[in-house]
Amino acid sequence: MKLKHIVLKWVRRFRTMVRYRLLVLTSVPIIITLLALIALTMYWTVTYTWQNALMNVRADLAVAHHSMELLQKEQRMRLMSLSSSYDFQTLLRTDEAKLSDWVSTQTSNYELDFVVLHPASALSEFSKVNRRLLLKGKEQTFFQVLDGQALENLNPNLPVNAEIPLIKEREFESRGLISRSLIPIFNEKNQLQWIVDGGILLNNSTLLVDRIRDLVYAADTLPLGSIGTVTLFMDDLRVSTNVPLDSEARFGRAIGTRVSDEVKRQVLIAGENWVGRAFVYDDWYVSSYEPLHDHDGNVIGMLYTGYLEWPLLKTFLTNIIELGIGIVIVLLLSGVIVYRGSRDLFLPIERIHNVVKAVQIGLDRRIGSLDLFKNHELQILGQQFDSMLDQLHQRNEDIKKASLELEDKVQIRTRSLHEKTEELEQHIKLLNQAKIKLVASEKLAALGELTAGIAHEINNPTAVILGNVELLQLELGDDTQRVKEELDAIHEQIDRIRNITRSLLQYSRQGGVQDEITWHHVNLIVEESLTLVRSGTKSYDVKVEAQLDAKCCIEANRHQLLQVLINLQMNGVHAMDDKGLLKVKTEDWIDQSGKVLGAVVRVTDHGCGISKENLKRIFNPFFTTRRSGTGLGLSVSQGIISEIGGEIEVQSELGKGSTFSIYLREKATSNNELMLDVEAY
């Protein structure tokens, strides 16, 4: 708590006291300048250091590459020295039968891992590139990967020396990476007679990589604590390296470990050099890789050089910390100087500030003498401020008197205006109600007259058609069987016309004389509708499942509610193409506070569903997607439910089915119809 109190105290001082704010204002430019210098210094240092590190590691890789070329050249010169030696030339001219055995004994004398003499007849054992160069009389040196049998053919000891245990994989690598040289020997007729084949095995060649490392990383060329490393890879496997198994303890060699996937993709697969920061076995190194190619140009391995990154970062961070400490010291010294130098200036300003705060809270204070020179700017400012406070005090007294008089007048006018406003709002409200009722009445009257006229005009010719069809059936007698299908089609269409006119008449009567509304238990009406639907769908492959959990009673017209339920259930049956499962569920309608508002009836089908476009139009009159539908069922149902204060909601997913929910209030109301008509208008 003490620490928090001290922090809050100083925060308040910096926010409220001039001396500290001025200290901040004078220090901020210095701090920003120093921080900018730090940022620029760090950016330049990081950029230069990192670019320099990458340039160094590129140069190291170039030196290692050149060293490998020198070693291969030295290897080729040894073979050429062997082929031009006195003993070789003597046996070549006098006893060629012993030449091959003698050559195989010269391996250690010429510091090679294998030396083999092939006759010209063995030329076909070499690749096309090798054959072409040998026939031209050109020496060649190249890298190559050989399996165990090929290694044994060159030297029986090579397979054992090449074997590498794979760390963390519990396997052994039996292939070998070799540096191989071929020297062609021609006879007096300038015909290829012999091929001198020799080279070194690069697997487990620790002396070789150490020699290259000593050439690349001379003493005192790396940051203190860093180590330079060189590695030869066969594919992605380290076959010869001085990368330690533990970079901190620096023991062992990481032979038998693999390169990272990122380096593998760029160097081995893409055939490009890699220069950058890479994770080498157990630590981060500033690294560079280049691919090794065989005689056919295929990438068979990599050459790597790199050194530990952390000592470089440590040196860099040490420099940054030293720079930061120096900057902090400069900031502290400059802050002390600014504070001490401006202290005499702050005290009069703080006194003026305290007087201002006292005046703000209603105290009658003045600045008075500031113990400064007579012509000091702050002394003059204080005198002017006191004069201004005197004038302000007098004006405040005058304003108070005027405000009291104005307040009385405003209250009188406000009271009168408020009464007029309330009266006007009441008139507007009554006018809107009358307008809404008039529009609703006119719409219903016009719709009723139109639909009644349409129904009458349709029913008269329909009755004539029906009578003539029945007379025709009577006259034909037994001959009606010949046209039975046509007559049945006529009867079916007549029934359809009657259903349409009946729906029109029923739709036109909405808002007319209200049918009797009584208390009913919703489950009983639902059970009755289910009985009628089941009897009407016996010929269909429809299963009706009911879950009636509603406990409350509602006010409704029984016949109209029954009509709505049957209409929704039959719509669900038709949506499922007269087969499937139809679910009907009832439950209490409960609001968020737990109060029972009424009952909810949900009708769920597993049919074709309704698209989002059609979902907004299904309650519009005469809208239907069925060829045999009238488009009035849902519109009539919505009107019936709205008349008693209820609601119909629909949720549908195309291809999966629909759920129609009927919300029935416990106490029927008569205002919903008016509100719905207002919204439609």
TrEMBL record:
Keywords from the UniProt entry: Cell membrane, Coiled coil, Kinase, Membrane, Phosphoprotein, Transferase, Transmembrane, Transmembrane helix
Sequence ranges assigned to domain Histidine kinase in this UniProt record: 453-668
Membrane-topology descriptor: Multi-pass membrane protein
Top-rank lineage group of the source organism: Bacteria
Pfam family, one: HATPase_c
CDD domains per record: HisKA
Location(s), subcellular: Cell inner membrane; Cell membrane
One GO CC term, this protein: plasma membrane
EC number assigned by the record: 2.7.13.3
HAMP domain mapped to chain residues: 343-397
Coiled-coil stretches: 389-437
SMART domains on file: HATPase_c, HisKA
Enzyme class, UniProt record, top EC level: transferase
Catalytic reactions of this protein: ATP + protein L-histidine = ADP + protein N-phospho-L-histidine
Descriptive protein name: histidine kinase
Organism annotation: Photobacterium frigidiphilum
